[in-house]
Amino acid sequence: MQKTSILGRLEILADAAKYDASCASSGSVERNSRNGRGVGSTSGGMGICHAYAPDGRCISLLKLLLTNHCIFDCHYCVNRKSSNVERARFTPEEVVDLTLSFYRRNYIEGLFLSSGIVRSPDHTMEQIVRVARTLREVHDFRGYIHLKTIPEADPEIVAEAGIWADRVSINVELPTAASLARLAPDKNAPRIEGAMGGLHSRIVDARDARRKYRSAPRFAPAGQSTQMIVGADGTSDTQIIDKASRLYGRFGLRRVYYSAFSPIPDASAVLPLQRPPLMREHRLYQSDWLTRFYGFAPHEVSEAADANGMLPLDIDPKLAWALKFRDRFPIDLNRAPREAMLRVPGLGVKAVDALLGARRHRSIRLDDLARVTNSLRKLRPFVVTSDWRPVAMLDLADLRARLAPKPRQMELFG
User: Fold this and answer.
1) Are 382 and 360 in contact (CB under 8 A)?
2) Cα–Cα dist 329/391, whole Å
3) 148, 169 Cβ separation under 8 angstroms
4) How many CA atoms lie within 13 A of 262 on its CB side?
5) How far apart are CA 328 and CA 398, in angstroms?
6) Average pLDDT in the 41-56 region?
7) The pLDDT value given to residue 44
8) Phi and psi of 103, rounded to 5°?
9) CA angle at residue 342 from 337 to 343, to 5 degrees?
10) From the Swiss-Prot or TrEMBL record, what is one GO molecular function term (predicted)?
11) Largest alpha-carbon pair distance within the chain?
């Protein structure tokens, strides 16, 4: 029997939204209601879904689907039309009331809204946009709003989402067009990328207008993001890295999110029986960071993969790359440029910047590294300081085994 109470439907639709990972709210415009006007804020509070900004700030969002009814039959989706799951649906007005009620109770600071496709893509997209428009226009809501848009909908309706939302996103779903055609026959890769291109053009135009005229309207000021499912097909990590790089380059995305495939009830026979290791998802995020913040080109990250194009699970991609190209090390931390220091395993961006600041006044010693990183064991073979030189450590045949994390017994009741 279908649940009809608000709490019953919230239980279903909030749980159904957990498969969408792309709900971080970094990059939004700062707005608040401290002057006595409006409702909401883009900062503070605790809530239902916790996302994290690049500065480590925890962001709480009400994350739910408008409905888990869907006319599409994507094999990997628990809400596909052939799935035997309990269905529920909110009206736009109910989502607005929930958002305001949760905010006033200090549960959330924003809304992440997605939906299954009900009746038609245009109808569903209009309902999603109506929620955001009502929050902004009628209630003067100044909190964060992230809308998941539908590429099959009319481009003008999709574009209206960017007028009211801080961030918009369209899921590419799978890394290759062949996999999308096989596992999501109702979706079309060129259509998805076309919709992403349309949003990107409007975001760029709005930013250009804001540079000239401060009164120009904003359009998705926190940009757009996307999500790829990992492990539902045979796509290798190098193919995923290449796809993500092209998406960043073509559409100026703020983030590409990776979601490890999770087996679902009554799954299609074309899907794998087991989920991929969660560590694979983690390694892809690390590779994403290498290209975005550490100066690695996508083909360089791919060089850390094995012959099958898969990143190692026992060590991180930067360490795997360094072990493969030992001739580029050790790096003299008292003389090397920032770009070279960022390639040292165990050194993050903040640590490198701290070392660059310190070496203006004195020579870097091994003790200085211990203050900025917890990975001194990993660092030693790859760096030279005023009191340390690795000598022949880079030539050791078992160096990888020495640097890989030690196996540990899992706790029975942990």
Assistant:
1) no
2) 11
3) yes
4) 12
5) 18
6) 53
7) 40
8) -65, -45
9) 105
10) iron-sulfur cluster binding
11) 72
Q: Tokens standing for 59?
A: 């962001």
Q: How many CB atoms lie within 10 A of CB 379?
A: 24
Phi-psi region of 106 (alpha: psi -120 to 50; beta: other; left: phi over 0): left
Three-class SS state of 228: strand
Strands 331-332 and 58-65: unpaired
Question: Which two three-digit tokens encode residue 211?
Answer: 């540079």
Q: Is the peptide bond before 330 cis (omega within 30 degrees of 0)?
A: yes
Report the C-alpha gap between 66 and 91 in whole angstroms: 7
Give residue-wise pLDDT tens across range 244-261: 999 999 999 999 999 998
Query: Residue written as tokens 């969408």?
Result: 20
Q: How many whole angstroms separate alpha carbon 184 and alpha carbon 265?
A: 17
> What is the gyration radius of the CA atoms in the chain, in angstroms?
24
235 neighbors 176 (Cβ within 8 angstroms): yes
Give the residue from 152, 157, 159 showing the smallest Cα distance to 173.
Answer: 152
Q: Is the pLDDT of residue 47 over 60?
A: no
**Tokens 């196996």 identify what position?**
407
d(CA 304, CA 282): 15
Amino acid at 243: K
Question: Percent of the chain scored above 90 by pLDDT?
Answer: 69
What does the alpha-carbon distance between residue 149 and residue 295 come to, in Å, rounded to a whole number?
A: 31
Burial label for 296, CB within 10 Å (0-12, 13-18, 19+), is buried
Hey, what domains does the chain have and what are their CATH numbers? 6-230 (3.20.20), 317-403 (no CATH)
Query: Could you read off the pLDDT of 65-115 as tens digits, one per residue?
Result: 999 999 999 988 888 888 888 899 999 999 999 999 999 988 888 999 999
φ/ψ of residue 179, rounded to 5: -65, -40
